[in-house]
Amino acid sequence: MPRAGLTAGRLVAAAADLADEAGYENVTLSALARRFNVKDASLYTHVRGLRDLRTRMALLAGGEMTDRIAAAVEGRTGKDALAAFAGAYRDYALTHPGRYAATQIRLDEATVTDSPALRRTAEVTYGLLRAYGLEEPDLTDAVRLLRSSFHGYCALESAGAFGAPRDLEASWDRMIDALHLTLLNWPRGAAP
Question: Using one digit for the tens of pLDDT, what is the confidence trace for 77-129?
């Protein structure tokens, strides 16, 4: 019988909070059970296991992040939209490190297809890039460029790995300038 007040939604939210506090890798069913003062087995009424919990965390965090990005880019175009998108991405990654880590796991195709949050992520991202006149397969390549640039910068920044005395904001702004120019001058043609 489910414990009163314990739901899948509450478990996932608590797991996301735990990830932000202690690190994504420290989210376990045992740690979550301790938060609710229940036995590990009680959680299986609401989630199928750790993989299911982490998938649900990824969907929760992905939806939160997309909502912030969508709000930031609304009504903007070109470089302003790119900078707003990047800023919202970076802010989420740095203020919610555990949740952000959850968004980096690979999800199975059925989960991606069935998730309104992930479909919205694609809509927002591809909408930004279509404004630069990109179409497939260039859209996919550009998404990969942006994601790897933003993720790499955020991962290095959060790890304190930038040792040069140059201001981080100035470097971030230059990266956005460079990405904007790259998108404006995207090589079109017979790419494989």
Answer: 999 999 999 999 999 999 999 999 999 999 998 888 888 988 899 999 999 99
Per-residue pLDDT, 189? 67
> What DSSP line would sit under the chain, residue for residue?
-PPTT--HHHHHHHHHHHHHHH-GGG--HHHHHHHHTS-HHHHTTT-SSHHHHHHHHHHHHHHHHHHHHHHHHTT--HHHHHHHHHHHHHHHHHH-HHHHHHTTS---HHHHHH-HHHHHHHHHHHHHHHTTT--TTHHHHHHHHHHHHHHHHHHHHHTT---SSS-HHHHHHHHHHHHHHHHHT---S---
Q: What is the pTM of this model?
A: 0.92
